[in-house]
Amino acid sequence: MSADVLSTEPHTPPVGTSLLSLTGIQKRFGAVRALSDVDFEVRAGEVVALIGDNGAGKSTLVKVMSGAGPADEGSYRIEGREVSIATPAAASSHGVATVFQDLAICDNLDVVANLFLGRELTRGVALDEAEMERRAVELLEQLSVKLPSVRIPMASLSGGQRQSVAIVRALLGSPKVVLLDEPTAALGVAQTAQVLNLVERLRDRGLGVVLISHNMADVMAVADRAVVLRLGRVAGRFDMADVSREQLVATITGADTNVVSERAARVAGRSPAAPTGPEGNQA
Amino acid sequence: MSTTSTDSANDAAAMTPAVATPAGGDAPQQPKQMLRERLAGLRGGDLGSLPVVVGLVVIVIVFQSLNSTFLNSFNLVNLCLQIAAVGIIATGVTLVLLLGEIDLSVGSVSGLAAAILAVLNVNEQMSPLVALLAAALGGLVIGTIHGLVFTKLGVPSFIVTLAGLLVWQGAQLQVLGSQGTINLPPRGGLQQFGRFSYLEDWQAYGLAVLLPVLFLAAKLLTRARRTRAGLPVGAVWVPVAQALLLLVVLLAIVAKLSIDRGVPWIFVVFVAILAVIEYVLRRTRYGRAVFAVGGNIEAARRAGIKVDALRTSVFAIASMLAAVGGTVAAMRLGFANQSSGAADTLINAIAAAVIGGTSLFGGRSRMYSALLGALVIGAIANGLDLLNLSSALRYIITGTVLLLAVVIDALASRGRQSSGR
């Protein structure tokens, strides 16, 4: 552990530079093409939503990025340099941290112990509790994560607080990119807001955030861009500034490419005076 | 899993400015506040050592009123002698329970270790120290085998150690051979240590003063470090008062025991072993990993803890402590025989750990639970002996107390859940 776990600033590249970029990713499971020719990029200081229906390939892509399930083909670049990421350890050493849906938290341990689990600070053989607590408090303060105390067991925290602690723990390794797998699933309204606030603070610190979510409201609220996967391919890329929720849902479900929506678009677009052609103006 | 019903309440609490000072380690500043937090903890199922201390007081009152010799110095020295062995075994059991596993073989392993000790010392004429080391090493090897079968082959610890219970009991009979009982040489080193070695007065009083001083020094050092790190600290008088209380209690115990033979060395050995294990559990990375594995094994694995190696090492330590406990029992009794470590050794050791406050569900244990639990178990056995009651009644009462302890654990755990702990 470096001494400056808290100060991500010196390591953080300027906003807008490419942190993680995947090109031509292919992944097969037997005869099934889980991902074909997927390109994906996260830049510093942005939140990219990765959305899609069940089975669209989101989880597979997250596993490719987190090292849990490397791609068969394609290139993986970190800050422009080609890297080989075959294990979760390799991913975290290259600055890619993942917060999985099940959080992996020890309910019987307190917040500080969970934050530093597996990388405790020591002084001789003994744990350096004071230093760990100081850093934990500092980091939680920087990210405005409010907890009743850092010395209570995780089990007494709410779902949103637990999710926040899991995210903060991922930050202790000074990552450049954070992958959040369904961070707001199973959270209430207020707790979801807490987590989304935290996501925005990560972005403001210049991190690249990948938000995997089913929840369109969350995606619309915090994401800068969205990448929609459908049937293992990129079905659409959107700038959140100029896309509607309906467009996103249509792309997720594939409703924008079937005959029903083509007809709907055609009928809607037709003026009484000048009917458009049959293959007209659907884009 | 925290229950959803309390989530909003927790959030609301976190939002109120009064407690929302971001994540400060809210060390209790005021005695009133401390008391309030303690009461809140009790309501929330965090019973601490309260049930066992209350239970111990009740046991003492009952037995003292039935037989006035219960609290005399002679009997209390006996009690210290009696609980040393089971306490050492219970210390190992605590470790295994912390993982959420169980070791049913500790009784057999302790018996085998007693047999090894006696055979090597008496039949093979080896020095007491070598015999002791061999017995402890035997326990270490046995525990490593348990751990490897458990982790590498995926056999549940319950089955592995149940098989071990039989296998090592067989090995014990084999080691003893045709001799049913091997007496340790009277007044030889081993019996001498187990039965007739007591702290000198100056040693006992020295310890009674030294321990509170060390306690206070450790507390003040922690406090200084927290101050340097800019963390909130409690009032200075709290650790001072605690140290003074400890001093008074220890001096009283030493004074009481010194009227008779004094503090037995084997009791000191037990407390020293327990103290080392407590330090490792609560102040080192290894101990933190044990708690983590007991709390959420998947989280521990993802945090980079080598789960299999850790679990194997815990089984190895537990069996080694069982072996050490077995040798202590043999030294105190002066012999090893076919029923060494048999009968109620196993159940007493597990009962002591659970009664002391180690959860059967893994990941939770009170400080010094093996000592408190062994005191309860030992006091019951001792008191019933004084009353000349049948062992039938003794088993029934001990079993009932064990059940009570587990019920309290289960209820407390339910309380923790409903208050989101």
Write a structural description:
The complex is a heterodimer of chains A (283) and B (421). Chain A is an alpha/beta fold. Helices cover 32% and strands 25% of the residues of chain A. In chain A, strands 6-9-10-3-11-12 form a 6-stranded mixed sheet, sandwiched between helices. A 4-stranded antiparallel sheet of chain A has the order 2-1-4-5, covered by helices on one side. Chain A is globular. Chain B has 17 helices and 2 strands. Chain B folds into 2 domains: 298 residues, ABC transporter involved in vitamin B12 uptake, BtuC (Orthogonal Bundle); 66 residues. Chain B is mainly alpha-helical. Chains A and B meet through helix 3, strand 8, helix 4, helix 5 and helix 6 of A and helix 1, helix 9, helix 12 and helix 13 of B.
The succession of helices and strands of chain B, N to C, reads HHHHHHHEHHHHHHHEHHH
Largest sheet of chain B: 2 strands, antiparallel
Unreliable segments of 5+ consecutive residues of chain A = 1-10, 271-283
The whole-number mean of residue pLDDT values of chain B reads 86
Distance between the termini of chain B: 9 Å
What name is given to the CATH topology of the largest domain in chain A?
Rossmann fold
Oligomeric status of the shown chains?
Answer: heterodimer
Q: How many domain units of chain B? A: 2
Ends distance of chain A: 51 Å
Q: How many distinct beta strands of chain A? A: 12
Helix count of chain A equals 9
Main β sheet profile of chain A: 6 strands, mixed
Question: Could you name the CATH homologous superfamily of the largest domain in chain A?
Answer: P-loop containing nucleotide triphosphate hydrolases
Determine the strand fraction of chain A and express it as a percent band: 15-25%
Number of domains of chain A: 2
**Outline of chain A, from the CA principal axes?**
globular
State the helical fraction of chain B.
over 70%
